[in-house]
Amino acid sequence: MSEPTPPSSPPPPSSPPPPSSPPFAPSWPPAWPPAVATPVVTAPGAVPAAPAAPLRSVVFRREREATWRELEGLLARADKGGLRALSATELARLPHLYRATLASLSVARSISLDQALTRYLENLIGRAYFVTYGSRQPLLAQIGQFLAQGWPAAVRRRWRALALATFITAIGFVTAYVLTRGDMDYYYSFIGDMAQNRTPASSTAELRAGLYDQGSFTSMLASFAAELFSHNARIGIMVFALGFVIGLPSAFLLFYNGLILGAFVALYTSRGLGWDVWGWLLPHGVTELGAVILCGAAGFTIAGALAFPGARSRIDNLRDHGQDAARIVAGCVLMLFLAGLIEGIFRQTVTSIGVRYTVAVATLLGWTYYFVRVGRAPRVEAEP
Amino acid sequence: MTKAVASAAPVPRPLSPLGDRRERREVITPEGVPISFELAAVGDRAGALILDLLFVFGTIIVLLLLAGAAFGASLDRKSWLVPLLVIALFLLQNFYFAFFELRWQGWTPGKRLIGIRVIDARGGPLEPSAILARNLVRELELWMPARFLIGGRALWPDAPGWAWVIASLWTLVFLLLPLFNRDRLRVGDLIGGTWVVVQPKPVLLPDLAATVEVAGARAAAAPAAYPFTEQQLGVYGEFELQVLEQALRGEPGPERTASLIAITNKIRAKLRYEHDVRLEDVELFLNTYYTAVRAHLERRRLFGKRKADKFS
Predict the structure, then answer these.
(1) Per the confidence metrics, is the pTM higher than 0.80?
(2) Residues 6+ away with beta carbon under 8 Å from B217
């Protein structure tokens, strides 16, 4: 080992001793520039002087640490109790602290080699990001905005998918109707086990009674629940979800729905109960069939996003269209809920054909108006 | 990777600059700053899902028990309570996840317990329609496979064996989609444009460069006891500095002491360091060296000269 060089007098530091760090100020913006850091060693080969001042990054951290701690405290309380746990001044402070910490992160990435500090700031910003960019409106206001604008606008945007879904259902209906009118045995192949006591073997009187019977409250509610949740809503959501597989299962389900309807109507029409059966079906059927067709439209939207992405990537397209489709389906669940109410309660209390048809026409006009007019941007009046 | 493995002593394993080897994804905030999140492991997501399902079905069972206790033997199929329970089951099944993710901005009770969260993949706020989209598709990827796997033959009694097998496999693909893609997305994530990430936990460790000065008189004498020349400070780069930081921040114990001693020996050999380092001063020496190298590298960085590792 070589002899250590004899210590010489340490060379004077290159800059005068720095002033003491500025007073500790946790508010934004922080004091800048901080005290200049002198290095621990100077000229090569010389014995270094004692450290005169800390590193620049150390000073940077010392000045800003209170800001970060404050943000951390606010975030801990916000995560535990929601934003309501913070007072108004603290809520106003949150964006400032977030931006200050974000700036600190950028500075730390450029000047500091303290890995733990950079990771701490990243994690802190990650947590603050959720709180700062969470949803802005309370839940009820969001639901109101959805009903007033989001849902009808989404349906209007997807009118092509809606047309396709209607077309497929109509084809199913016409096919089954024509076939069943021609040969009543087709009824069994289309409807099968769901027929219960309404088959071609039943007498006309039995069928008529089935359209007009009145039940007790519990049977009404039971039929509401059974119809809605065992059949309608599940079918609706499945039709939407199956759009992910390029829409073919959705199309099949819509067609099948049309088939069942067509066979059913054909049976009653063949016995001369045509008016009655439409009066039985339409009051809730407008809403229910409309909801299932809309769910089909949502499914085709997703299928179209995957199959025909246009200029963008499939993932991006899927994301945008998926949000529209989700809006449509969420509204459809509401529609099916209403349809179930009408079907369960209204249909078994009211037996007059006139009232049934009035309600049917009213629902048709109501939904048409809702989807065509509600939520449109107001037209700008031209100045004369 | 081979740089640290080449040493004979137990130096900590090489780490990425962020300190771990798990999947990270970057999101650009609306301010334009990229922040990175760690993708949640598939096991974590499955665990959170199981917890949530337990909550859902637990609530249903509790409701059933309460109804049974309140109304006793008069509970039959015609009672009005059964349809209400069916309605509750439907709402819970389909809207439990969406409700909590809307209210808590990306959390459900199961996710909260595990510590993972939903974020928007493009860096914006989490839209309600995105939350709805990703949860309504559960019908395809969860309930249908569940019905196939559990209900099995009862669903489709006339089907030939091979058709049932193919149908089950098809639904299983949707259930297990997160295993088949790099971003661990399930169908709902694809449609909603979301990622599921680990909720970050910020822990501020003390600054190693600041501890040298607060240790007192002994620390003040340390630079004189362990001087370094400029040339010695320029041997290692940022990567080695961060490895040293990881070693100094390790859990106190015999392993850490052994690795610190090994590092000291290695540094002394590489630098051809002429002074002796006493065994009890190993940590002080390394702290001094760390502070000196960090000051040196940070100063050079300000002038745009970056030294990534000892080979550059």
Answers:
(1) no
(2) none
